[in-house]
Amino acid sequence: MYQALIADKKFESPETKEVLRYKEALWLGLDRMKSKPFITTNLCIELVQKIKGNTA
Fold first, then answer.
1. Total-model pTM
2. Cα dihedral 8→12→24→2 (10° resolution)
3. By CB neighbour count within 10 A (0-12 exposed, 13-18 middle, 19+ buried), where does 9 fall?
4. What is the pLDDT, as a whole number, of residue 24?
């Protein structure tokens, strides 16, 4: 996990990919909350799409 964050490498471990997607979703949510300080349905959908790694 540490190597993936520091080196910006692509790791094939599903667990590592999942943790990195959660990290990206967390930062995305924080950025969105700075511009609009409330939670919307669209924000929730966007975060779930980021975590799942698709736009379905």
1. 0.73
2. -50
3. exposed
4. 92
